[in-house]
Amino acid sequence: MSEPTTARKHTALPKARILIEALPWLTRHHGKTVVIKFGGNAMIDEELKAAFAQDVVFLRHAGLRPVVVHGGGPQISKQLATLGIESEFKAGLRVTTPEAMDVVRMVLAGQVQRELVGLLNQHGPLAVGMTGEDAHLMTATKHYADIDGERVDIGRVGEISAIDPGAVQALLDDGRIPVISSIARSADDGHVYNVNADTAAAALAAALNAETLMVLTDVEGLYEDWPNSDEVISRLTAKQLEKLLPDLASGMVPKMQGCLHAVRNGVHNARVIDGRVQHSILLEIFTDEGIGTMVVPDAHEDEGAA
């Protein structure tokens, strides 16, 4: 009778090893706040969305305090097209007319956020949806695009001028998972503005004194010499990142600028990870190898892996 028992133990053993590997990371991250920017393919692929929700709930039950910030570019473009409103971009930013802003607000707060809250809440009554408008969480000023040295009006596009994280902090203290849409109201003109979700996540991570900012992308991380090489930089300091910024592909700029802002404003580390990989968040936080690119403050230059 002893043989089957031995076989069962052996088949389960790798699972135990995986759990034990996670132990030092569970200890290190317990009670810490992690801000996750949800975007890219992970937002539109059903399996990736479900895996993302599982990861975030796992973090919460593992003793971390996750906060999710999201945009919704593909969904906004689709809805604008349905309504016959043309999508126009200048300097990588969506030109947002008042009519387009109504659609942006509806899609982000009424569609993307609701779906994400629903996915998270399949695992328990945890997620609460907010926008940057709620409780003055984010205040915006109008952003003008710089095109060839010229200041160009691109409509209701904003940049964050202030953050009051009190409502998010209260939700975290209550054991909830805040899910935040990146729109904000201006104190100057009262209008609601569309805010880049990478920028919003970075500003919120700094305001919350988060341990980690995690940005999901559609690439493996920051490439060392793109397009000549697909070698991913696993770790770099703020100073090293600053030198690379002028040469980055336009899509990576707001993400890496966000990472730079975060680690220069009290966030312990910022990570860009591949959202196309199922459970990439767990792989990054709870395994020795990690995946993607980690940015650390300059003071951490000589330290071991964070």
TrEMBL record:
Segments crossing the lipid bilayer: none
UniProt xrefs under CDD domains: AAK_NAGK-C (cd04250)
Signal peptide interval: none
Subcellular location field: Cytoplasm
Family to which the UniProt record says this protein belongs: Belongs to the acetylglutamate kinase family. ArgB subfamily.
Function: Catalyzes the ATP-dependent phosphorylation of N-acetyl-L-glutamate.
Protein name: Acetylglutamate kinase
Species this protein is from: Streptomyces ochraceiscleroticus
Lineage of source species: Bacteria, Bacillati, Actinomycetota, Actinomycetes, Kitasatosporales
Encoding gene (name): argB
